Amino acid sequence: VNHLLGIKYITKADIDLIFETADHFKEVINRPIKKVPSLRDITIANLFFENSTRTKLSFELAEKRLSADVINFSAGASSVKKGETLIDTVNNILSMKVDMVVMRHPNPGAGVFLSKNIKASIVNAGDGAHEHPTQALLDAYSITKKLGEIAGKKIVIVGDVLHSRVALSNIFALQHLGAEVKVCGPKTLMPKYIESLGVKVELNLRKALEWCDVANMLRVQNERMDISYFPSTREYTQQYGLDKELLDSLNKEIVVMHPGPINRGVEITSDVADSSQSIILNQVENGVAIRMAVIYLLASKIKQQ
Ligand code: CP
């Protein structure tokens, strides 16, 4: 397979190989010269049809650390605004001898759709509420760096699971790696199919936190809800917000994660986000090595063709 469209489509062996490769690149980017010449013959287009800070910059940096040629495209400043279709847009970019496409798109399944219509490797950088595979890989990788391994660990994903591509990709990745996964949040923010994925739902945040080794606190995706949504932000924070008092009252020290961007004071307070139990910035740091690994492994397949 020459794409990374979702964690659902890959195996534990694929994840293990990505992690091994990321270990190598993590060491490389800590050297004084952070760059390797591996992909001097590869050109990558980063196509962002939706806003991003971490994913966009992390992919660009990963590609540059591998010495690939990189072009960046933001839909808002492009001819998409004049009505050009997704396939026309991408085929025009590919005709400039581009080998790989990294794409973020607001529509679930956009990456899968594109993979059936173009001739290039595609990496999904987030498609609507479907998948965000490199986020799940960097999350799982960050847990292994913090706790040694994932098999047998208890991990709770808290919050707006309904609108979250991060939740879905994390569930698939963590299950591949042998973790026990629960989700916690208001019923209105749980997809109906969630238990069919083999995860248990816990509605009470304290109980979920007392059970887990790791809590991944999701962002409340206000942009995907209207103002009549229940719970309101204030009600959400009262029932599902993690503050220092709650964190310190638990019977053990748990690891706190968040994919970013954080709504400070909504999902977590600043003193939790910035505490020694938080690995939020380690997640961002590890994202570069993980994305280098994904791109390197896909490019190796292109070169074999
Ligand atoms: N975690 C994440 O995807 O952040 P961005 O939306 O800033 O890329």
Automatic annotation (TrEMBL):
<dbReference type="InterPro" id="IPR036901">
    <property type="entry name" value="Asp/Orn_carbamoylTrfase_sf"/>
</dbReference>
<feature type="binding site">
    <location>
        <position position="54"/>
    </location>
    <ligand>
        <name>carbamoyl phosphate</name>
    </ligand>
</feature>
<feature type="binding site">
    <location>
        <position position="260"/>
    </location>
    <ligand>
        <name>carbamoyl phosphate</name>
    </ligand>
</feature>
<dbReference type="GO" id="GO:0016597">
    <property type="term" value="F:amino acid binding"/>
</dbReference>
<dbReference type="InterPro" id="IPR002082">
    <property type="entry name" value="Asp_carbamoyltransf"/>
</dbReference>
<dbReference type="InterPro" id="IPR006131">
    <property type="entry name" value="Asp_carbamoyltransf_Asp/Orn-bd"/>
</dbReference>
<dbReference type="Pfam" id="PF02729">
    <property type="entry name" value="OTCace_N"/>
</dbReference>
<feature type="binding site">
    <location>
        <position position="132"/>
    </location>
    <ligand>
        <name>carbamoyl phosphate</name>
    </ligand>
</feature>
<keyword id="KW-0665">Pyrimidine biosynthesis</keyword>
<feature type="domain" description="Aspartate/ornithine carbamoyltransferase Asp/Orn-binding">
    <location>
        <begin position="152"/>
        <end position="297"/>
    </location>
</feature>
<comment type="function">
    <text>Catalyzes the condensation of carbamoyl phosphate and aspartate to form carbamoyl aspartate and inorganic phosphate, the committed step in the de novo pyrimidine nucleotide biosynthesis pathway.</text>
</comment>
<comment type="pathway">
    <text>Pyrimidine metabolism; UMP biosynthesis via de novo pathway; (S)-dihydroorotate from bicarbonate: step 2/3.</text>
</comment>
<dbReference type="Pfam" id="PF00185">
    <property type="entry name" value="OTCace"/>
</dbReference>
<dbReference type="GO" id="GO:0044205">
    <property type="term" value="P:'de novo' UMP biosynthetic process"/>
</dbReference>
<dbReference type="InterPro" id="IPR006132">
    <property type="entry name" value="Asp/Orn_carbamoyltranf_P-bd"/>
</dbReference>
<comment type="similarity">
    <text>Belongs to the aspartate/ornithine carbamoyltransferase superfamily. ATCase family.</text>
</comment>
<dbReference type="InterPro" id="IPR006130">
    <property type="entry name" value="Asp/Orn_carbamoylTrfase"/>
</dbReference>
<dbReference type="GO" id="GO:0004070">
    <property type="term" value="F:aspartate carbamoyltransferase activity"/>
</dbReference>
<feature type="binding site">
    <location>
        <position position="261"/>
    </location>
    <ligand>
        <name>carbamoyl phosphate</name>
    </ligand>
</feature>
<feature type="binding site">
    <location>
        <position position="135"/>
    </location>
    <ligand>
        <name>carbamoyl phosphate</name>
    </ligand>
</feature>
<feature type="binding site">
    <location>
        <position position="104"/>
    </location>
    <ligand>
        <name>carbamoyl phosphate</name>
    </ligand>
</feature>
<feature type="binding site">
    <location>
        <position position="82"/>
    </location>
    <ligand>
        <name>L-aspartate</name>
    </ligand>
</feature>
<feature type="binding site">
    <location>
        <position position="165"/>
    </location>
    <ligand>
        <name>L-aspartate</name>
    </ligand>
</feature>
<keyword id="KW-0808">Transferase</keyword>
<comment type="subunit">
    <text>Heterododecamer (2C3:3R2) of six catalytic PyrB chains organized as two trimers (C3), and six regulatory PyrI chains organized as three dimers (R2).</text>
</comment>
<feature type="binding site">
    <location>
        <position position="55"/>
    </location>
    <ligand>
        <name>carbamoyl phosphate</name>
    </ligand>
</feature>
<dbReference type="GO" id="GO:0006520">
    <property type="term" value="P:amino acid metabolic process"/>
</dbReference>
<feature type="binding site">
    <location>
        <position position="219"/>
    </location>
    <ligand>
        <name>L-aspartate</name>
    </ligand>
</feature>
<feature type="domain" description="Aspartate/ornithine carbamoyltransferase carbamoyl-P binding">
    <location>
        <begin position="3"/>
        <end position="144"/>
    </location>
</feature>
<dbReference type="GO" id="GO:0006207">
    <property type="term" value="P:'de novo' pyrimidine nucleobase biosynthetic process"/>
</dbReference>
<protein>
    <recommendedName>
        <fullName>Aspartate carbamoyltransferase</fullName>
        <ecNumber>2.1.3.2</ecNumber>
    </recommendedName>
</protein>
